[in-house]
Amino acid sequence: MFGLRTFFNRAFHPAQILLISFIVATLIGTALLKLPGTVMNGELSLVDAFFTATSSVCVTGLIVVDTASTFSPLGKFILLMLIQVGGLGIMTFSVMFVMMAGKRISFKEQVMIQDTFAHSPAKDLKSLIISVALLTFIIEFIGALILFARWSWEFPFEKAIALSVFHSVSAFCNAGFSLFSDSFMGYRGDIVINLTVAVLIILGGLGFLVLMEIPSLLFNKGKKRKQMTLHTKIVLIMSASLTVAGLVLFFLMERNNLLKDLDLWDSILASFFQSVTARTAGFNTVDINLLSPVTLFLMIIFMFIGASPGSTGGGIKTSTLGVLIALMKSRLMARENVNLFKRTLPKDVVARSLSIVLISFIVVILFTMVLLLTEGGNIHDPTQRGQFLEMLFEVVSAFGTVGLSTGITSSLSDAGKVTVSLLMLVGRLGPLTIALAIGKKIAEGRFQYSEERVMTG
């Protein structure tokens, strides 16, 4: 065992170990879902088992079979464990692999790990991983208690517990898996269900460091009161702004369409819930397939942005968007430095943000083309041109590990399902892996080439 740990520690880059960990977890999940007794009738095909395992480990929520009616209690328990491992892993795997050999890690590795957690202050990594796990379970436990209090008078005791635990974990991990065939459409006007699930999604999407910093800001009233870090300020402001903007835009765009038969309160509640879930979770209280094209495009934008660094969500991250907004503002004002909230952002942070967005755009474009090809998009048929928006929606949902769909997931070909599965893995690890890879500085030597300007824009 020690030899294996030493081999992994020496042979692979941290980002590579992270990728291998998720691939292994996905393969184990696939094997578990192929076991007898995991589904109610028959068995899953290998492709469907792989897709479901990938969606669970990558906490995406896209499904090719109905979770509620297809899986047995054993199958649902396996899904729950895969979701928990995937959700907790995105915050902790970066720390776990450096502890495998049981030795001190280098300063460079510590910097890389801390950068993954959005510049956390130096601390014992073992304590850090324990704190992450403890905080996760506490939040999920409280969420499950609230949901149980609501469902205990609607369902038998055992079922109420199962529903509460499963949906609390799924919501905090931003997975979007539901034990209801219509997600939460049956609870569209239920304020307890909507707010509890939405708060769990928001907390899971803020990131571990932000969650740990908020209590110290609220309850430390002493003279040495801690100042809010720039990272936390960006995350909170961007998250709140996106949620409010999404609520208003969704309401305005759908008030004469999907929301026309709802009263004002239910319309606002549905708009709020979809604004929250669109950036990473994948639950829904309205039929996504009935949304207008402009609303679908709005949700594509929100899914691409995603959650925040060090969280259970995907996308390019809210802080990346904040940096890009600051960059645009500085260029429009002809400023050399990029400033945000009276702080100057390091040039490497700005460059990394641009790289993440550019690479993410390229990934979405390439996978959209591949999915169009696998689903017959290269055939000259005018009726298929309308599928482009649905395919793009599916691709961005997979990349952002959101899980929302217009309903085409189950009808994808095996090649299409494998394509989306790979994209879910890329989307889950992409921003994190890119950040780690870019953060690993390579010696460039003592010389540099001469500069020469080129025409742009």
Weakly predicted, low-confidence segments:
none
Measured between the Cα atoms of the first and last residue, the distance is 55 Å
Which percent range fits the helix content? 55-70%
Q: Which series of helices and strands comes N to C? A: HHHHHHHHHHHHHHEEHHH
What is the global morphology?
Answer: globular
Structural class, from helix and strand content? mainly alpha
Q: What's the structural domain tally?
A: 1
Count of individual helical segments: 17
Strand arrangement, major sheet: 1-2
- Largest beta-sheet details: 2 strands, antiparallel
Count of DSSP strands = 2
How confident is the prediction overall: mean pLDDT?
84
Alpha-carbon Rg, integer: 22 Å
> Proportion of β residues?
under 5%
Task: Fill in the keyword field for this structure.
single chain; 457 residues; mainly alpha; 63% helix
Task: Describe the 3D structure.
This protein is 63% helix and 1% strand. The protein has 457 residues and is mostly helical. It has one domain (12-439). Strand 1 (339-340) and strand 2 (343-344) form a beta hairpin. Helix 15 (347-374) packs antiparallel against helix 17.
Q: What's the quick description here?
A:
This protein is an all-alpha fold. It has helices spanning 2-11, 14-33, 46-57, 67-70, 73-99, 107-116, 125-151, 157-172, 191-206, 208-219, 230-254, 264-277, 293-305, 318-332, 347-374, 387-399, 414-439, and strands at residues 339-340, 343-344.
